[in-house]
Structure formats: structure tokens, C-alpha cells
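It is worth pausing here to work through a concrete case rather than discussing structure prediction in the abstract. The textbook approach is simple: state the sequence, then state the predicted structure, then interpret. We follow exactly that order.
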Amino acid sequence: MTAFSKLHAQNHKITELSNVFLYLVQSREMCDTETACDVFFEYTAKVKEHIELVDRELCGQLISYPDQTVKNTADRFLSGSTEIKRIFNKYLKDWCSESKRRLTIRNHADFLAETEQMFALVLDRIQRETEHLYPLIRKLEEKQAA
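Step two, the predicted structure:
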């Protein structure tokens, strides 16, 4: 299974990038800077990478576990991933040009509100992983080791 240190490092980096980006974009003028765009696109890459890693390495293995409760937990996280990816992709389509690595903000207030919601959704997912998924995996690994 994946090392928890890698997952925690990803979680920390996503949280850090989220906080920095939300701070920067409070001012409309900062939204068009190269620095803000770099932070934003690093954030999006890290979020995608993290969700794929959790889905593949953790949930992918839990889904085949014989205990139905464990399978249900994996199913819930995989379903959540699908929904987050859908919302995240719509958010990206609405607010940026990935090919040009540029934000496309038509209304700053709307952008800020949707960004805060999107980032909160990702941070909530990370919190649920930390509180529910990681402890479950640790428990199963301890059981297997015994």
C-alpha cells in the first residue's frame, strides 16, 4: 500500500497551495499574475494526482476486500472522487484555460465564491480521508501483520 507519509505530504501541499491561492486572489489585480496562475495550476495538478493515487492505491485495493463494510467505504470514496472530478472539471472549464495556463475571470466575485466552494470541497475530502480512510487502512494492515 501507499506510504502514508506521501499521502500526508500531498495533503499538506494541497492545503498550502489552497491557502496561498485564496489569499492572492482576494485582490482582482493578483488574479492575472503569473505567480497566481503558477500556484493555481500546481494546485490543480496536485489535486488530480492525489485523487488518482487514493482511488488507485487505496480504494482499488479495498474494493476487493472480503468485508462488505470495507467495500462500502471504498465505494463511498470512489463515488465521492467521481463527483469531485466532475465538479472540478466544470470549475476548470468555467474559470481557466488549461492550454494557455491562464485564468479566465469574467466576474471576480463569482470566481472568488466558486473558488472558495471548490477548494473547501477538496479540503473536506482530504479531512474525510484522514479521519476515515487512513485509519481503516492502518487497522487492516495491522490485522494482516498479526
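Step three, interpretation. Helices lie at 4-24, 34-62, 68-95, 108-145. The longest helix spans residues 108-145.
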